């Protein structure tokens, strides 16, 4: 895992966009983001049990697996959104980027590769993309039946109950860039 401030320069979303300014794990923690490295699935099983996750599936994001819809799907995953549930992803193979919004509404880019697990809290604005190798195989964990419902950022999401709860939990935790 490597975390840094997104450079906001033009270019393909799958490029590193590394500003050269690293973000410490403690800042991610202040945002409510949890990171673990799991050498194998037994580590994921332990986390799933402790967080009461009962279901999982796997997704491979690549041109070979998705064919003609790959570019469209990668672009849709990159729309800024939130979920009303935690989002847990474990990278089984390949690599990709999760971008999360900071307290100041800037992007923090988190590069994950095989063995990395991330937990994004409900209500955090985020987005995902593969890296330049165009290949990410991930396990998605769910508390109940598998569902993935993104709520794209807009006026209605700013007033969302889960967004408000997320912001309230972060009050007083502001950390300077």
UniProtKB/TrEMBL annotation:
This is Acireductone dioxygenase. Catalyzes 2 different reactions between oxygen and the acireductone 1,2-dihydroxy-3-keto-5-methylthiopentene (DHK-MTPene) depending upon the metal bound in the active site. Fe-containing acireductone dioxygenase (Fe-ARD) produces formate and 2-keto-4-methylthiobutyrate (KMTB), the alpha-ketoacid precursor of methionine in the methionine recycle pathway. Ni-containing acireductone dioxygenase (Ni-ARD) produces methylthiopropionate, carbon monoxide and formate, and does not lie on the methionine recycle pathway. Keywords: Amino-acid biosynthesis, Cytoplasm, Dioxygenase, Iron, Metal-binding, Methionine biosynthesis, Nickel, Nucleus, Oxidoreductase. It is found in: Cytoplasm; Nucleus. The gene is ADI1. GO terms for biological process: L-methionine salvage from methylthioadenosine. GO terms for cellular component: cytoplasm; nucleus. Fe(2+) binds at residues 81, 83, 87, 126. PANTHER family: ACIREDUCTONE DIOXYGENASE (PTHR23418). Its cofactor is Fe(2+); Ni(2+). Pfam families: ARD. Its EC number is 1.13.11.54, 1.13.11.53. Ni(2+) binds at residues 81, 83, 87, 126. GO terms for molecular function: acireductone dioxygenase (Ni2+-requiring) activity; acireductone dioxygenase [iron(II)-requiring] activity; iron ion binding; nickel cation binding. Binds either 1 Fe or Ni cation per monomer. Iron-binding promotes an acireductone dioxygenase reaction producing 2-keto-4-methylthiobutyrate, while nickel-binding promotes an acireductone dioxygenase reaction producing 3-(methylsulfanyl)propanoate. It comes from the Eukaryota. Belongs to the acireductone dioxygenase (ARD) family. Its main location: cytoplasm. CDD domains: cupin_ARD. Pathway: Amino-acid biosynthesis; L-methionine biosynthesis via salvage pathway; L-methionine from S-methyl-5-thio-alpha-D-ribose 1-phosphate: step 5/6.
